[in-house]
Amino acid sequence: ASDGAARVRRTVWSALSWFGAPRQVILEQALDDQDPDVRRIAYTIMGREAASHIDLALLASGLKDPSPRARVEAVRGYAARAGGSVRCPELFAAAVDPDLHVAVAALDLLSEECSQRTRQVGLLAGIAAEHSAAAPRDWHRSAHALVSLAGVAPSRAEPLLSGLAQHSNPFARAYAARAATVLGDTGVVQS
Q: What pTM does this model have?
């Protein structure tokens, strides 16, 4: 398909998204599209409350989409629509996705307590602790994990906070400040 044809399909799907959720059979056609942004838009539509009539398994299929852009929207939509006991294992898997954007979306969504709390805290703490071993530009995963960990297990996040607060990257330090704010640790925010 030509780039122009894909652009038209993306525009059509963007317009359709404003009118609620199309029938499932129509969304299934979008998920077969070769253009990743058509699929991304379809997953975005399926994640909305108006699409609650769409089979959750169809939305879950997006968690394995070959396009990271589509997977990010599938992760967000799945987290919005799935219940905690079903939602969390999929978020655990997405949190270790090779694509940074997918992983960060899942890590942010893990800021809400899961029914498998022990696994959630272990995963977040493990990723949050990686900031010291990460290359200077690879702080994103650990920073997002630390902010989420601060919300669900403050006692596990506190010991990790000072390391991220001393990171060489100012954006990483900003995430340390966010985690400190969640923890109520004004000393880190002031320094």
A: 0.90
